[in-house]
Amino acid sequence: QLHSDQDKGDGSLKYILSGDGAGDLFIINENTGDIQATKRLDREEKPVYILRAQAINRRTGRPVEPESEFIIKIHDINDNEPMFTKDVYNASIPEMSDVGTFVVQVTATDADDPTYGNSAKVVYSILQGQPYFSVESETGIIKTALLNMDRENREQYQVVIQAKDMGGQMGGLSGTTTVNITLTDVNDNPPRFPQSTYQFRAPESTPLDSPVGRIKANDADVDENAEIEYSITEGDGYDMFGITTDKDTQEGIITVKKALDFENKNLYILKVEATNTHVDPRFLYLGPFKDSATVRIQVEDVDEPPMFSRPAYIMEVKEDVPLNSVIGTVTAQDPDAAKNPVKYSVDRHTDMDRVFNINSGNGSIFTSKPLDRETLLWHNITVIAAEINNPKQSSRVPVFIKVLDVNDNAPEFAMFYETFVCENAKAEQLIQTLSAVDKDDSYNGHQFSFSLAPEAASSSNFTLQDNRDNTAGIFTRKTRYNRHETSTYFLPVVISDNDYPIQSSTETVTIRVCACDHRGKMLSCNAEALIHPTGLSTGALIAILLCIIILLVTVVLFAALRRQRKKEPLIISKEDIRDNIVSYNDEGGGEEDTQAFDIGTLRNPEAIDDNKLRRDIVPETLFMPRRTATARDNTDVRDFINQRLKENDTDPTAPPYDSLATYAYEGNGSVAESLSSLESVTTDGDQDYDYLSDWGPRFKKLADMYGSMDSDKDS
Questions:
Q1: HSE (CB half, 13 Å, CA atoms) of 613?
Q2: Which one of 8, 225, 648, 685 has the fewest CB atoms closer than 10 angstroms to its CB?
Q3: Least confident of 3-17, 252-266, 426-440
Q4: Which residue intervals define the domain Cadherin in the entry (predicted)?
């Protein structure tokens, strides 16, 4: 209550209030000065309120005393329970931890005033989780309370912690939280095989690195603590098999390292060991962290293809061996216990020319065609061995055949030699150096000898000197040569090698006599230059001449083809009747067919209608129809055709395109005269065919046919 000394109780003063919560939380009686709270106050929201009060004259509104300030302080009561910072805590510790190992610390706060009584004094206790864990009452630290907790027995624990104020006394408020504790794994369990012996079967045809079987050792641990490494420690198949670890399933995969052979060994016994890769030294006292098991692998027999004694064969043969000579033998056997017989053959895809063949029974390879080392040095063929009872079981082997050289090729010039000698040459003058080559091989190097052929050794105008270094020189024997007497000399040279058997050949050197200047420079040979430094070679001149000739021939042929073009008719109709013969694809109607051509006109040119226009082109009014000269009665058909051809070529009214005008002339010279019926159109009487009987047996059929026609008419 506020009261002013100036207040006489007559109601002349008025009390007013301002500050924190004035008019809202706090109100004042303006007559008596009593201050009242309108709502429940919460210290945790605002512990202190500062208010200002003043007494004023109700009539004038002027203060009668200075403004007074006072503080309202809210006293705390225990109205807030402790609150944990998290609703749920999650923690983890390794299994097998010692007692008192720190797990996690929980924290609870109380909103009450810690300076006023015990309302904010919090004490922790465990409601659930004993006897495994404990909590410190003042700090909220949770620790392990039981020794050797094993994750493999129990992995998850749920602990309930209570926080109570008032120091844990009766009447205090409390709050709880849940702590989920997980035991993490440590490597405290060794791997163990579920069985001591494993049995597997593997066909002997199992490819290398192929799996034979899987084994697995169980480990109660997880993650890296359960990782296992498998190994083969001993056994008679130590080098035949291998084992690897499947990282996903932690299984041991047994694979084949070497080829299996049922006939050689059909049972292998292995000892396999499984070991943890991550061992914790703290738990070595629990025992060795490894285990072993026995693996028995039974090899199964399969029908295998024949097996060659070698992976590849290399043979050598001389190129001059006779046909059907054996050059080598391949051997293959059936590895199975049955020992089935084997037959051999050559893969013809590798010997398309059938140079070699093989004995199907014993595998001996022999030649079937001549060999030539200079053509092909190596022959690479494939031999197939197949079981006779089961041809599908077959195998292949490469055979490399090297053709050895024999001295079967004579040496020859390294190039074509065409040289010249000057007319003013001196005796013993070198005009050409020769060299030779040989297609054959020589282990010690080629050694050629040169000499003139016997027929030219004494009478030759030149001499040959062997330089003993596989070259030879041609020298002049006399002084001065006359190209007008002899323009060309042919010098036969014999070249021999030193191999066995000795091979020799006779090569010819062409020597031309040429005119030279005083320095020995050639000017001309037989009035034409053979070699000239500033001119063209003979080969180049020949090439240029050939090009010119080909160009001229092309131009002539093109011009001839242009001139031989025929003028094509505008229309091709079955009714196109002109003074020509048109070819049809249908068969003619015989001599009774007189509609196609006016044969009488052909024989009698005077009967032609001069004013008859051509039917295959549009008539032109610029030119009047040409009037062709009439032929005499005795005009030969050849002359008539030639005349018509000439008129057709010179006719200005002819169409400007190729037109096919075909004329035929039988000719004369037949002893039997004409057999055609051209004259039958112009004659009124019947023909007498009795003369056909006089022509011999070849015309007997015609005589019978036409003779029978006459008899029919008579009857």
A1: 12
A2: 685
A3: 3-17
A4: 4-84, 85-193, 194-308, 309-413, 413-523
Average pLDDT of the residues in 180-195:
92
> Within 10 A of 693 (CB to CB), how many other CB atoms are there?
14
User: Is residue 311 domain-shared with residue 296, that is, in the same domain?
Assistant: no
Q: Is residue 57's pLDDT more than 90?
A: no
Write down which residue in 372, 404, 436 finishes a domain: 404
Q: Hey, what are 182's tokens?
A: 């997980």
The CATH number assigned to the domain holding 208 equals: 2.60.40.60
Sign of torsion over alpha carbons 159, 164, 167, 171: negative
Distance CA 72, CA 43 (A): 11
3-state secondary structure of 612: coil
Pair 311, 295 in one domain: no
625 neighbors 611 (Cβ within 8 angstroms): yes
**Rounded-to-integer distance, Cα 360 and Cα 342, Å:** 8
Task: Identify which has the larger pLDDT, 390 or 696.
Answer: 390
Q: Identify whether 63 is preceded by a cis peptide bond (ω within 30 of 0).
A: no
Assigned domain for 314 exists: yes
Spatial separation of the C-alpha atoms in residues 210 and 599, rounded to whole Å: 97
Query: Which amino acid does the sequence have at 321?
Result: V
Kindly give the residue spans of alpha helices, DSSP state H, lying in 409-537.
Answer: 454-457
For residue 681, the model assigns a pLDDT of 46
Other residues' Cβ atoms within 10 Å of the Cβ of residue 440: 18
- Euclidean distance between CA atoms 124 and 54, whole angstroms: 51
Domain boundary among the residues 404, 434, 469 is at 404
* Interatomic CA distance for residues 21 and 39, integer angstroms: 10
Residue entry with tokens 């031999």: 383
Number of domains within the chain: 5
Does the pLDDT value for residue 229 go beyond 90?
A: yes
Asked whether residue 231 is domain-assigned, the answer is: yes
Quick check: is 133 in a domain? yes
CA 257 to each of CA 210, 253, 447: distance values in angstroms, whole numbers, following the listed order: 8, 12, 58
**8 Å CB contact between 351 and 414:** no
Q: Which residue has the higher pLDDT, 585 or 303?
A: 303
